[in-house]
Each structure stands twice: as structure tokens, then as C-alpha cells.
Amino acid sequence: xxxxxxxxRVRCHLGPLLEARGMTLTELSERVGLSTVNLSILKxxxxxxxxxxxxxALCDVLGCTPGDxxxxxx
Amino acid sequence: xxxxxxxxxxxxxxxxxxxxxxFEAVLGLVALGALLTGVLTGLDAFLDDEVxxxxxxxxxxxxxxxxxxxxxxxxxxxxxxxxxxxxxRFAVAVPAILGALVVGIVTTLVLEVVRxxxxxxxxTTANARTLRWAAxxxxxxxLVVAVAEVVADSVLRSDLPxxxxxxxxxxxxxxxxxxxxxxxxxxxxxxxxxLLREDLEGVV
Lengths: 74, 204
Description:
By secondary structure, chain A is mainly alpha-helical. Chain A has helices spanning about 15-20, 25-30, 35-45, 50-60, 65-70, and strands at about 10, 70. In chain A, strands 1-2 form a two-stranded antiparallel sheet. With about 200 residues, chain B is mainly α. In chain B, the strands form two sheets. Chain B has a three-stranded antiparallel β-sheet. A two-stranded antiparallel sheet of chain B has the order 2-3. In chain B, a hairpin with a 2-residue loop joins β2 (about 65) and β3 (about 70). Helices cover about 65% and strands about 10% of the residues of chain B. The interface of A and B includes residues 31, 33, 35, 56 and 60 of A.
């Protein structure tokens, strides 16, 4: 959940997806081209927005859909 | 596979890598130059037997030089005070020292902002605040120096014998006002940049 005045209910499931594929954050960082810092921000639900290019790269590397990566809490 | 466009698009060499050291060196030299000028003028005023003061001359009082249809009319001159009184020495030294102080303070504040370029993230509220203070220092400092010059001018002219056509010589520095306005405008730009930066925080 992001602090400040930008509340939302989007949850990122990057952690479980990485675990299921036996991939580390560092490996994902190298394959996606995004820094581990930014990936960590995403994984820990501290991101405020995701670029489409980032989303595309993650889905390509993890072999998943955006719906597998993000859900909205009910 | 697609890579993060922003990471790839980010330039390999950041602008601050070569710009910042050059600006820092120039600003450092300006600050040092101002300090030295102030110190030397002050020392000069207190230690020399003769003190030189640039002054304006009343119009038409000094002979003009005319050659081949071209006329040179002197409007400024160097007033040489021989063995001046302490109060006259102060009158010469104080505006110069104050002027040097103002330049030194403003330059130091701007240098602080330029140094942040090295970290590659100059658009912060702290930098905007520093530039605002630099603007205030430039404008107020200019006013203080102008007031000091008016007082100094009055002191010096009151001691002059009748017959010396020295005109009122103090003036408000437009450079100082303009610098203050420019710095204030820059402060607003940096403030806007800081807000934009804040908007992008957490975007991956």
C-alpha cells in the first residue's frame, strides 16, 4: 500500500511468481532491464505507478499476464 | 524481450558530470575574487597614506578635450585623499567590504545548489529554498551596499574643500537587483521541478 495521499488497493504478486519460477530478483532485474531497487519497490507494494513498458517486460520474462501480476483487493 | 525503456533511454553520462565541476570552479573563483577584492580594498583604505576613490564629476566642471570634431567630456575622476581621517577610511572601506560579502554569500549559496548536480538530483525543495535565500541576499545586499555608499559619499564629500566639483556618486546596483530577480525565478523553476520529481517517485 502506498503512503501519502495516493491510496489504492492494488496488490503486486511478484514475490510468489518469482518463487514459483525459482528466479531471484537479481536475475529478473538482468532479464527485464529494470534495477533491483525498482523491482523491490514493486515487489513490496511501494510503487505508485507502473509503466506499460515495464509491465510488458515483466509479463514476457515471467510468462504471465498482468492479471497474474496485479490484483485489486476487494 | 522488452527492456525497461526508461532505464535504456537514460543517458549514460549525466549532465552534472562535467557541467557541475566547471560551474563549481567558476563560482569558487568568483567568490574568492570577491573576497580578495573586499579584503584588499579594505586593507588599502586603512593602511595606505593615499586612498583613491572613484567619483563622479559635476557636469562641465572639468575641461573637455576636443580634437578634430570629437569632444571628450570627463564625467568621472579619481579623488585622491592624502592622509585621510579614520572616518574617511571607513567610508571607503565599508561599502567595498559589504559588496564583497554580498557577492560571497550569494555565490556560496548558488555553489551549494550546483554541488547537488553531482548527485544528479538538483530538483529538491531544499535547493529551491537555497535559491530563494540567494535571491533575498542579492536584492537586500544590493540595497544595503547602496545605503552604505550613500552614507560614505556624504561623509567623504562633507570633508572636501569648496571648489572640488565632486558630484553625488552613490548608486543602486541594477546588477544586484537583476541577479536577485533571476535567482527568484530560478527558485520557482526548481520548486516546480521538485514537485514534478515528487510526482514521479515510486513509478517503476
